[in-house]
Design a protein that fits this description.
alpha/beta; Rossmann fold; 7-stranded mixed sheet; 170 residues; 6 helices; binds S-adenosylmethionine
């Protein structure tokens, strides 16, 4: 099951907003059970995914903060609801930028405890699109609490928001 608000429709929307060409190489950082990797492959992308605790054979074991891929390996990096959980958002942005080719795209949706656009700018990205999904995320989080699997959300107390961001490597 997808572990981010909006499920597959949200992933499709991110791809649509990005304008990423079919056949592009995409790395999913924090790919979990691999639904987005599978969807990307179905849509014609050359997708790979890593996760600290992979829940599918199509996801490799790996740390998104130290992915081990060479510099400039991918046309795009996708990450949904994982950078925040890594405990080091600036470190995750650094690693995403490192593995992206020049002009590569970051497709990110995640929890933020500070305004995300300046954060991405400071990390060397030009933000093309930013959508506040906090309302959808609240509903998703409540449903997860109700199902009893909110541990996957692991969010501490504090004012936060959930954002969809499409950004280019500067
Ligand atoms: C809420 S789940 C989202 C999974 C998937 N992106 C999705 O949307 O279905 C967060 C995932 O991030 C992974 N994760 C957290 N820290 C990580 C790290 N440092 N490196 C790789 N994966 C990490 C967790 O293991 C978990 O599978």
């Amino acid at each position: 099951m997808n572990a981010h608000p909006g499920g597959a429709a949200h992933t499709r929307r991110m791809l649509e907003l990005s304008g990423l060409s079919a056949g592009a190489s995409v790395l999913d950082l924090g790919a979990g059970a691999g639904e987005s990797v599978a969807l990307l492959r179905e849509m014609g992308y050359a997708a790979e995914g890593i996760d600290l605790a992979p829940r599918s054979p199509i996801v490799q074991k790996g740390d998104l903060l130290r992915s081990g891929y060479p510099d400039a390996s991918f046309d795009a990096v996708l990450s949904q609801c994982a950078f925040f959980l890594s405990g080091d958002v600036p470190g995750a942005l650094r690693e995403a930028r490192r593995v992206l080719k020049p002009g590569g795209l970051l497709l990110l949706s995640d929890v933020f405890f500070e305004p995300p656009v300046p954060l991405l700018k400071a990390a060397g990205f030009h933000v093309r699109q930013a959508e506040d999904m906090t309302g959808e995320w609240k509903e998703y989080y409540l449903e997860a609490l109700w199902r009893g699997d909110a541990a996957c959300c692991g969010v501490p107390r504090g004012k936060c928001g959930y954002w969809l961001l499409i950004a280019g490597k500067e």
